[in-house]
Amino acid sequence: MIDFDKKVNRKNTNCFKWDIPEVKQDVIPLWVADMDFEVPKEIIDDLHKRIDHGIFGYSFPPDSYFQAFIDWQKKRNNWIINKENIVYSSGVVPAIIMAITSLTKINDKVLIQTPVYGPFASAIKDHNRELVENELIYENNYYQIDFKNLEEDLSKNVKMMIFCSPHNPIGRVWKKEELEKILSLCRKYDVILVSDEIHSDIIFSGYHHYPIAKFANLEDKIITLMSPSKTFNIAGLRSSVAVVNNEKILRKYKAEFFKYDGHLGNLLGYTGFESAYKYGEKWLNRLIPYLEENVKLVTDFFEKEFPKIEVTKSEGTFLLWINFENLGLTGTDLQDFFLNEAKVLLDLGTKYGEKYGNFLRFNIGTNKEIIEESLCRMKKAIQTLEGKWQVF
Ligand SMILES: Cc1ncc(COP(=O)(O)O)c(C=O)c1O
What we know:
Elements: E1 28-30, H1 41-52, H2 63-77, E2 86-89, H3 92-103, E3 109-114, H4 119-126, E4 130-135, E5 137-139, E6 142-144, H5 147-154, E7 158-164, H6 176-188, E8 192-196, E9 222-226, E10 240-244, H7 247-259, H8 267-279, H9 281-305, E11 310-311, E12 319-323, H10 331-342, E13 344-348, E14 359-363, H11 368-383
Parallel strand pairs: 1-13, 3-4, 3-7, 7-8, 8-9
Antiparallel strand pairs: 2-10, 5-6, 9-10, 11-12, 12-14, 13-14
Helix pairs in contact: 1-8, 2-8, 3-4, 3-7, 9-11, 10-11
The chain binds pyridoxal-5'-phosphate.
The site of pyridoxal-5'-phosphate (PLP) has 13 residues, from helix 3.
């Protein structure tokens, strides 16, 4: 039975979300992008079966691993992929790093669209490439791409763009026209496009995810990164893929993986990945409405209780980007306020770009009771600011 309301104690499991020192016994962690739901039963059963074999030597991803992904993309996105164009990677972030190191040189310009998942910027800076931040436009609790500005930036000798689709943390599911414009700009300025589509299975009703590579030709320089890790809550199994159609790019990118011995992975990861794509659809189709309800819960709460706190309109992902500007606190002060006064740990806005100190990211990938309890605690904490804060 699928029960997203079920509470599973994740404490003392070396869990990044629940076991870091800030998350003391009474703190609710809503920070890192990891959900609290038990995974589909078929994944657990397949992992048991694999473990029962009793030998865990070096293993390569089997054909069935790639086929499960190919079938999933065909069915969900009507995207046709050949096995020869898929490269295994333990994670999407390592794959981004490999793309940067294999396809750009030291001091080359690499562009990202802020606010965006922090490891994009670190991957660029840590490998001595020049970071180009192209800001998204924020208006009426909604983000859009400033294409004029993007073109201006891309035209200044940018070598690579790391694109987030759907976009973490702002929850945008990019429209077909937007994707086509990105693609044509990358073509025009000969920019290699790395499209991180890790969140592409969690799309709310009324929206549709298009893998950007679906609109591309075989010459286009695109690396698409995907994984069932966010969708099915199996990030700890470390398995993902890159799809690369351009032969030259594929050769260079693959060679980098071999150089760093990244082509061999964790055999339980292969099993979890394959099982998720083969059997997880029913579970996912139940998860999405549950998450939609959670989005509504949080959005309605702020609209009713604190209308000057803006929840960015979400079209997908299990992450909400909330503007607390009117609270009069920023950066770690804002995060600490909720941690200390409400015992709720939200993700720091500045991790997504220096300018975003007024924002916190709220992870709704947990059961309703936890969300309700968090909102109740946050309400009490905010009310202590009465008199100091302009909303009252
Ligand atoms: C956009 C995005 N890319 C990549 C990752 C992490 O991927 P991985 O754990 O496979 O390295 C995350 C995790 O939150 C993410 O949001």
